[in-house]
């Protein structure tokens, strides 16, 4: 009788999910961000890290690994132990770099575990308020005219291969012409260059360009997302403004190295969805023009991740953008 009782207790313990699966996380989580402190992605990452620290019961610490256009951060996470304690915050840069570089040092599909998409920041095509172009079609016509005259229009971006660069290059390609790309060290510098008249137009994520638009300094011509931006509902999308215009956005998500434990992925995905039920959290993430785009499940986000790999690869091929 005693032996059966002990065996029964052991069987119950082994069957208990709480005992069969170790507590996770049991240590602080490192959240690797591919940009410097104070950048738009970093600010979003810190909002997410602070809330998830509360929900998970362990600190989530932001680790800024800027450099090499985001390659350093991606390589750091790809090579990390798959224990869920080293994560990556971002997404579009990680996937885009894999097409822009011949050897990025990682494979965005094979070397990563997508967890949850969180917020999207489409780019906004803007010109100065005194520019003669009232819409994207007029700008495209001017691009053709100026290129034919040997005086191509110029555009600024936050760097080679950024969504802003790809969107502008795609606009020129679809218009059957070209414009001169002037890369800057960050989107803020590109916006400043437009303000000072150094370039004719630029793309910048809405959060960076919106203050200038609201101040009346810039005229928005289109957004690059799949939907119109809630902060600028009157501005058409790329697809509405130019036939076959692609969707090119900056989106920020959680991912980790390949082989993450399923319970860690599920815990993080559920925690982000819990956080998104808090109005202050959502307001903080979207106050500068971002849009919440929570993936329904890790599997749905993994499908989106693979599709973005295809889309960005095709866009790099179409525009000829390449970082050697």
From TrEMBL:
Lineage, broadest ranks: Bacteria, Pseudomonadati, Pseudomonadota, Alphaproteobacteria, Acetobacterales
Family: Belongs to the UPF0065 (bug) family.
InterPro entries named among the record's database cross-references: BUG, Bug_dom1
Transmembrane regions listed in the UniProt entry: none
SUPFAM superfamilies: Periplasmic binding protein-like II
Keywords: Signal
Keyword Signal: yes
Electron transport as UniProt keyword: no
Name of this chain's protein: Tripartite tricarboxylate transporter substrate binding protein
Region forming the signal peptide: 1-20
């Amino acid at each position: 009788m005693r032996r059966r009782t002990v065996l029964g207790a052991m069987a119950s313990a082994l069957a208990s999910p709480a005992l069969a699966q170790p507590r996770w996380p049991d240590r602080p989580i490192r959240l690797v961000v591919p940009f410097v402190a104070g950048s738009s992605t970093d600010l979003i990452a810190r909002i997410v890290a602070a809330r998830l620290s509360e929900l998970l019961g362990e600190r989530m610490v932001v680790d800024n690994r800027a450099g090499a256009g985001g390659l350093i951060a991606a390589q750091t996470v790809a090579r990390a132990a798959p224990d869920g304690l080293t994560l990556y915050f971002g997404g579009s840069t990680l996937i885009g770099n894999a097409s822009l570089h011949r050897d990025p040092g990682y494979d965005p599909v094979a070397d990563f575990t997508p967890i949850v998409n969180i917020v999207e920041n489409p780019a906004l095509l803007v010109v100065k308020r005194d520019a003669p172009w009232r819409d994207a079609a007029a700008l495209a016509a001017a691009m053709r005219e100026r290129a034919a005259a040997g005086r191509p229009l110029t555009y600024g971006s936050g760097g080679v291969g950024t969504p802003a660069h790809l969107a502008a290059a795609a606009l020129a390609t679809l218009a059957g012409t070209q414009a001169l790309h002037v890369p800057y060290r960050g989107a803020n510098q590109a916006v400043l260059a437009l303000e000072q008249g150094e370039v004719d137009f630029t793309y910048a994520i809405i959060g960076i360009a919106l203050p200038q638009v609201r101040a009346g300094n810039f005229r928005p011509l289109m957004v690059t997302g799949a939907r119109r931006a809630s902060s600028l509902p009157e501005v058409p999308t790329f697809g509405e403004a130019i036939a076959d215009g692609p969707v090119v956005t900056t989106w920020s998500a959680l991912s980790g190295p390949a082989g993450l434990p399923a319970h860690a992925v599920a815990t993080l995905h559920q925690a982000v969805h819990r956080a998104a039920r808090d109005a202050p959290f959502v307001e903080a993430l979207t106050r500068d023009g971002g849009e919440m785009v929570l993936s329904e499940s890790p599997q749905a986000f993994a499908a989106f991740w693979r599709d973005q790999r295809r889309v960005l690869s095709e866009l790099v091929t179409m525009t000829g953008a390449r970082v050697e």
